[in-house]
Amino acid sequence: MSVCHEVTNTSCVASRWPRDVRAPLYSLMALIILTTLAGNLIVIISISHFRQLHSPTNWLLHSMAMVDFLLGFLVMPYSMVRSVEHCWYFGEIFCKIHTSADIMLSSASIFHLSFISIDRYYAVCDPLRYKVRMSLLVSAVMIFISWSVPAVFAFGMIFLELNFKGAEEMYLEHIHCRSGCSIFFSKITGVLVFMISFYIPGSIMLCVYCRIYFVAKEQARSIKGTNPNLQTGLEVKAGVLQSKERKAMTTLGIVLGVFLICWCPFFVSMVADPFLNYTIPLALNEALIWFGYLNSTFNPMVYAFFYPWFRKALKIILLGKIFQKDSSRCKIFLDSSP
User: Fold this and answer.
1) Which end of the chain has fewer beta carbons closer than 10 Å to its terminal beta carbon, N or C?
2) CATH classification at residue 303
3) Distance in angstroms (rounded) separating the CA atoms of residues 3 and 178
4) Looking at residue 337, what is its pLDDT?
């Protein structure tokens, strides 16, 4: 039996996977990391560089891309080694920093998704007052909350060791081992993390997107039921609205589907593990964490790749036109809003 530390009786057990299993795992995780970094970096560059994209909505997207980029840059590489080797070679203090940053950035990404859903709600359900409701100041407040609340919650909980509250003996006797860095939660803190990092923002997303769906349906129905004398022009408008509605519903379905598929298994496992006496295997926990990370990989694809302005910005960047004089003033889209 291979161990992680020279003091074998208190050491964590190292992975027993042979090289021909480890190599594909490292390759897959490295691909996820590189895709996460590349996709989110393109979003950051696009919104930062092109002045036409400097809107409250896009600054929310920019901030979320920053969170996801940092998750891929600061957290995922160390998680990759831990997941494959089942050992932690970077010291106890850095384990706390890594765990805190992991919880913070993952939660911040989910917070951003929740606020973006609120932004989309006002855009669809109250378009006349949208620019007043979603000002640059409101966007800045949303960004501040999305960063600060997860940071205080994550670093405070880990460095004050509140995650062990009520399960200290269980952790020391059955979970703790040298050269390990597993994310541990007691029953109380597990439920708290589940509520703050997943259930509350996830419920907001679900309720808001359901509301958007019904409002869009009602708008299309009201146009169809107007004065027959105005039917010719309104039929065209209704057709355009129905087309936009279908596209919006497809996008919303993808947004919710990706979010739930990526994060739901991990959070359900996390909150259930303390009530199952921590019997969920380490390998399964690590796999579910990486499923959650995939949400940060897919975010730029779901939220940016679906926008025509992003495709044009991407083309300008890839062709090197971004280095031309006054490229920041390029017309990325024709309407008043992307």
Assistant:
1) N
2) 1.20.1070.10
3) 9
4) 47
